């Protein structure tokens, strides 16, 4: 059912997230088909959206999971993801989380520092477990995206720096409970220039040869994720994007015999299926600005305030006629509580329902109750 029809035919309580499950399944089919062509493995980045219905749908396609906390590991397992298809990433894994991951027999730790590797090794000895290690290498590749979501430069906190790698290998050599299984790379998020991934492939090829020449042959090459979505085309299904994305790696990556290629996709799988719904509370006409004040704010969708993200905004009650220019703002006592400036929409009235589109990733999952906001309502188009 189309978003407008669903909203206008149902008594929607706002603020709310609404998820279009048929749209999600269509995107997952296209992603899986494009990856299967080359024998690639997809792991869903749970941090993008951990809604139970979303997880159930993604898991049904046989994808693995990319987790960045112990609770995400527990949620992945309880949602049906296979333990041996779970990567555990993150620069600040706690001792409790490391123990949980070891006892859960996950696929691999994506290790981000020498110190972390030492701690994992200590716990593996104590528990008499084998810790499967994928070293996250900081490849110094510019993702050409917002600096808050760039992760692959030397100035970023992520990954093991090149001068530490020999030390990391020595730690692995001297601890029988540490098993080197692969290399992990991730250069950033919301990447729309696919030449970034070509540049990543060239760096991965160099590191793959470097490790293999030293007797550490990776079983796994984990290339991370970062594929962007088109926030200006909320009704598009990005099948072509997946074909081009995986095609880049097929053309430029030079894996050794029997190496398995893994990806950690989040936003590109779930962003398009979700919208934030809000009602217009007030129209405030100024001398130079017209403000539409909504009942949703940065507490429901923080992306615009956090890194100036732009979402398509629609008036679901009025889609024809003369347009007016508005700043679309929320009720929170922060000047950054703004979804968009100088947005042209058909004339808004109190009670109109506004849809902020392409909000299925880093929307509900990053919401808060700052200002003691009431919990969100959640709806699904089946």
Gross morphology? elongated
The H/E string reads HEHEHEHEHEHEHEHEHEHEEHEEEEE
**Broad CATH class of the largest domain:** Alpha Beta
Cα(first) to Cα(last) distance is 8 Å
Task: Name the structural class.
Answer: alpha/beta
Q: Rounded to an integer, what's the Rg over CA atoms?
A: 22 Å
> What is the CATH architecture term of the largest domain?
Alpha-Beta Barrel
How many distinct helices?
11
Query: Percent of residues in helical segments?
Result: 25-40%
- What average pLDDT do the residues reach? 93
What does this molecule look like?
- The chain has two domains: 21-270, Alpha-Beta Barrel (TIM Barrel); 273-380, Lyase, Ornithine Decarboxylase, Chain A, domain 1 (Beta Barrel), CATH 2.40.37.10.
- The protein has eleven helices and 16 strands.
- The chain has helices spanning 3-9, 21-36, 52-59, 70-78, 95-104, 114-127, 165-173, 195-213, 239-252, 267-270, 303-307; strands at residues 16-20, 41-45, 64-67, 86-88, 108-111, 131-136, 178-184, 220-222, 260-265, 274-285, 290-294, 313-315, 323-329, 338-346, 353-356, 377-381.
- Strands 1, 10, 11, 12, 13, 14, 15 and 16 form an eight-stranded mixed sheet that branches. The chain has an eight-stranded parallel β-barrel with strand order 2-3-4-5-6-7-8-9, surrounded by four helices.
- α9 links the parallel β8 (220-222) and β9.
- The N and C termini lie close together (8 Å).
- This is Diaminopimelate decarboxylase.
């Amino acid at each position: 059912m189309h978003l407008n029809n669903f909203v206008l035919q149902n008594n929607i309580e706002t603020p709310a997230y609404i998820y279009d499950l048929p749209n999600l399944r269509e995107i997952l089919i296209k992603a899986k088909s494009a990856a299967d062509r080359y024998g690639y493995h997809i792991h869903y980045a749970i941090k993008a959206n951990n809604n139970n219905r979303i997880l159930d749908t993604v898991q049904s396609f046989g994808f693995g999971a990319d987790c960045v906390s112990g609770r995400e590991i527990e949620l992945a397992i309880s949602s049906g993801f296979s333990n041996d298809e779970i990567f555990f990433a993150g620069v600040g894994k706690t001792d409790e989380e490391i123990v949980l991951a070891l006892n859960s027999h996950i696929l691999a730790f994506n290790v981000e520092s020498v110190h972390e590797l030492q701690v994992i090794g200590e716990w593996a000895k104590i528990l008499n477990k084998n810790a499967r290690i994928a070293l996250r290498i900081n490849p110094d590749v510019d993702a050409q995206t917002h600096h808050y979501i760039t992760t692959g430069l030397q100035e970023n906190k992520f990954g093991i720096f090149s001068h530490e790698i020999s030390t990391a290998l020595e730690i692995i050599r001297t601890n029988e409970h540490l098993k080197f299984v692969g290399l992990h790379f991730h250069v950033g998020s919301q990447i729309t220039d696919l030449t970034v991934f070509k540049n990543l492939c060239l760096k991965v090829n160099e590191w793959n040869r470097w490790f293999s020449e030293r007797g550490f042959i990776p079983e796994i090459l984990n290339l991370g994720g970062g594929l962007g979505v088109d926030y200006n085309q909320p009704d598009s299904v990005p099948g072509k994007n997946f074909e081009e994305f995986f095609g880049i790696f097929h053309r430029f990556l030079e894996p050794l015999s029997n190496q398995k290629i893994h990806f950690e996709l989040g936003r590109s799988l779930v962003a398009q299926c979700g919208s934030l719904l809000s009602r217009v509370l007030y129209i405030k006409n100024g001398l130079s600005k017209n403000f539409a004040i909504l009942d949703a704010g940065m507490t429901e969708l923080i992306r615009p305030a956090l890194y100036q993200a732009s979402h398509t905004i629609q008036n679901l009650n009025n889609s024809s006629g003369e347009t007016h220019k508005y700043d679309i703002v929320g009720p929170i006592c922060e000047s950054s509580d703004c979804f968009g400036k100088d947005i042209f929409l058909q004339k808004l009235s109190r009670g109109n329902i506004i849809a902020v589109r392409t909000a299925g990733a880093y929307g509900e999952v990053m919401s808060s109750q700052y200002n003691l906001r009431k919990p969100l309502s959640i709806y699904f188009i089946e």
